């Protein structure tokens, strides 16, 4: 049985239920949530085929849940609602003491935040943006906002007015219309934008590299289920159809990861002062 549910849960939620062969005779269903870097409609289109493939390959029943608001996503993550989730690097640090989400996989390419301006802009260096309005997807979007804002203040000495627009495409479009002086994003999201938009913008600043967005699992998920999901993602890279699915979610080269190796260093950045609570 294949059932697709669209419903509102204090925002926008999509649930995809796939009934497959039960895992070890158990009818347990696991949920997977995705950080809303893009609109729910776009994430729905990109992630459902991959979830279908993972479910089919493992025999594990999965339910995809998407929330339109970054704040709602973080609130649910801090409550431990999702069994699996695709999160930004700082979410792993944020939830470690509260829920203990376990990083399973990340893409081999590092995460790099970028600061963009219009191609014909008078702003030639990051220092020219002092006192200007800069757009960001969300306050706690890691590479595109949280880390980037901290570096602009602490390392570059900038004073600016942040404007939060919800998603990366919103930042690109407001910047292209000259509504803001500059905008924050990450390399992968910028490269995934249409050529028509990219050609109107240029990068004037990049953050240092950090480990990319991981797929994490709640500790309540049995280790054999976590391992099966991890191996299924890794196996996708071995065939053309699987590689296409991974490319669609900007996760082209999955590798195993661990908190101590890849995300523990983020604790030393002390970004709490730049963490901006959002309303649900």
How would you describe what is shown here?
It is a single chain. With 280 residues, the protein is α/β, with parallel strands linked by helices. The chain folds into 2 domains: 2-109 and 211-265, 3-Layer(aba) Sandwich (D-Maltodextrin-Binding Protein, domain 2), CATH 3.40.190; 113-206, D-Maltodextrin-Binding Protein, domain 2 (3-Layer(aba) Sandwich). The protein has 10 helices and 13 strands. The longest helix has 19 residues, at 40-58. The chain is globular, with a radius of gyration of 19 Å.
What is the secondary structure topology, with strand pairs?
Blueprint: E1 2-7, E2 13-18, E3 29-34, H1 40-58, E4 61-65, H2 70-78, E5 84-86, H3 89-96, E6 102-107, E7 113-118, E8 133-136, H4 142-154, E9 161-164, H5 168-176, E10 182-186, H6 187-191, H7 195-198, E11 201-206, E12 214-217, H8 223-236, H9 240-248, E13 254-256, H10 259-263
Parallel strand pairs: 3-4, 3-5, 8-9, 8-10
Antiparallel strand pairs: 1-2, 5-12, 6-12, 6-13, 7-10, 7-11
Brief synopsis:
With 280 residues, this protein is an alpha/beta fold. It contains ten helices and 13 strands.
Give me the secondary-structure category.
Answer: alpha/beta
On the 0 to 100 scale, the average pLDDT is 90
Please, how many helices? Answer: 10
Q: How many strand elements?
A: 13
Strand order across the largest sheet: 4-3-5-12-6-13
Report the biggest beta sheet as strand number plus sense, adding barrel if it closes: 6 strands, mixed
What overall geometry do the principal axes of the alpha carbons give? globular
């Amino acid at each position: 049985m294949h059932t697709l549910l669209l419903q509102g849960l204090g925002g926008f939620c999509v649930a995809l239920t796939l009934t497959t062969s039960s895992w070890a005779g158990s009818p347990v269903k696991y949920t997977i949530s995705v950080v809303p870097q893009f609109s729910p409609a776009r994430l729905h289109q990109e992630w459902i085929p991959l979830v279908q493939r993972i479910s089919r390959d493992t025999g594990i029943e999965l339910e995809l849940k998407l929330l339109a608001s970054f704040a709602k996503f973080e609130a649910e993550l801090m409550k431990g609602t999702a069994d699996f989730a695709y999160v930004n690097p700082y979410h792993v640090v944020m939830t470690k003491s509260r829920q203990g989400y376990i990083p399973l996989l990340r893409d081999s390419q590092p995460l790099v935040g970028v600061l963009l301006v219009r191609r014909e802009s008078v702003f030639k260096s990051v220092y020219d943006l002092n006192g200007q309005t800069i757009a960001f997807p969300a306050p706690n979007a890691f590479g595109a906002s949280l880390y980037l804002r901290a570096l602009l203040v602490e390392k570059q000495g900038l004073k600016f007015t942040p404007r939060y627009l919800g998603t990366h495409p919103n930042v690109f479009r407001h910047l292209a219309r000259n509504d803001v002086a500059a905008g924050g994003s990450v390399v992968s999201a910028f490269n995934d934008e249409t050529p028509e938009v990219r050609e109107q913008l240029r990068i004037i600043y990049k953050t240092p590299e950090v480990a990319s967005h991981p797929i994490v699992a709640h500790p309540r998920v049995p280790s054999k289920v976590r391992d099966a999901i991890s191996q299924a993602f890794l196996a996708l890279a071995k065939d053309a159809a699987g590689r296409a699915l991974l490319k669609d979610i900007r996760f082209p080269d999955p590798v195993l990861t661990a908190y101590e190796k890849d995300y523990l260093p983020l604790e030393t950045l002390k970004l709490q002062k730049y963490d901006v609570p959002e309303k649900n």
